[in-house]
Amino acid sequence: MEPNTGVTFEDVAGVDEAKQDLQEIVEFLKTPEKFSAVGAKIPKGVLLVGPPGTGKTLLARAIAGEAGVPFFSLSGSEFIEMFGGVGASRVRDLFSKAKQNSPCLIFIDEIDAVGRQRGTGIGGGNDEREQTLNQLLTEMDGFTGNTGVIVIAATNRPEILDSALLRPGRFDRQVTVGLPDERGREEILKVHSNNKKLDKDVSLSVIAMRTPGFSGADLANLMNEAAILAGRRGKDKITMKEVDDSIDRIVAGMEGTKMTDGKSKILVAYHEIGHAVCATLTPGHDPVQKVTLVPRGQARGLTWFIPGEDPSLISKKQLFARIVGGLGGRAAEEVIFGETEITTGAAGELQQITQIARKMVTVFGMSEIGAWALTDPAVQSSDVVLRMLARNSMSDKLAEDIDNSNHIRNNRDAVDKLVDVLLEKETLSGDKLRAILSEFTDISSIKVERIPIRELIEA
């Protein structure tokens, strides 16, 4: 038991919606009589659902800290023992102590370890786990009125929890603690950079823009990696160079041995410039951030893009642009070196664009056969004609459009110039790439201006 966690909502960034949902829990723990006077019953249990590293445990500690109440914390796996009855006994002891210290907050992390659906046969028929869950259900159902004991649990697998655990009267509500958006990532970065020395060129908004899909734990790790890298390089401050290198390392892996000059290096250079040129010349594609010949992980070279504001909502134009950009590397190999010299380097990209194309037809309804979702098992098993139409539409239509978008052949001089610069510098920024490309072709009409949503709202 912690008498006071010392953590408040000020220490939790990037999850404003979850904090608003949990604010009334704090108010009840502070002033329960205000709710009791009008006959209101506060939820007995709150389930925090979200991916790992999004701050579920920190939120629970912040609730207790805001309300100034004792905080009981343990993991679901701590209940489970090989000896029968131990888990159930621990549940009884926990709730007994909690009632003696009410108002208080109980936090059970990874509740799926003990709250898994009963009768599934998973776990080798472990009766001890089911006894523990039964005792937990009994204790939560046995609360009388507003006792001031609130149970908060966290999981990233809510679909496997027992239905009895989620019914009203136990875990009354589910609060989603999702991955932060761009603004949330910027707030989280502010928290994790408070104790670090940053150079004046470090822009937290740019870092937030480059890190879609990062959780709070990922962003904390990013700033720590940047600090380690700065120390290793003998610097007294973290610069944008360390942050960029840390993002590359987290996303793509450790930096490998640089390639020596030769055919392989030239081929990789044309491959990556093919991606960058096709992406830049295709409306709707994310802008190029940089192109590099520095190997990372399994990749011999990489083309990085600055992602859009909301990666969860993607238009048909954007999806098609990703297909064209993804095929740019293979197209460059074929145009420059000939069809017999194409390599296996495009294997991963071909898998990705095939998946995009298939989903455009079978999931998103973005084909000439209309707004059909062909992923439903009943449709897939019964309507063979629709599946054949989808397959034909996907191959012929996309092939025709992609042939009409052969930016490599149409801009051969620009590609050669970009490859020469890339071979010399080994890393080419997006701004430099667009500047060189604009010398050979007009890109002003397809330049995508990135306007953050918050600026649109303020306007």
UniProtKB/TrEMBL annotation:
Subcellular location: Membrane
Biological process annotations from GO: proteolysis; PSII associated light-harvesting complex II catabolic process
One GO term describing the cellular component: chloroplast thylakoid membrane
Keyword Nucleotide-binding tagged: yes
Broad class of the protein's primary localization: membrane
Domain of life: Eukaryota
Protein keywords: ATP-binding, Hydrolase, Membrane, Metal-binding, Metalloprotease, Nucleotide-binding, Protease, Transit peptide, Transmembrane, Transmembrane helix, Zinc
PANTHER family: ATP-DEPENDENT ZINC METALLOPROTEASE FTSH 6, CHLOROPLASTIC (PTHR23076:SF118), METALLOPROTEASE M41 FTSH (PTHR23076)
Family: Belongs to the AAA ATPase family.
Protein name listed in UniProt: AAA+ ATPase domain-containing protein
Organism: Glycine max (Soybean)
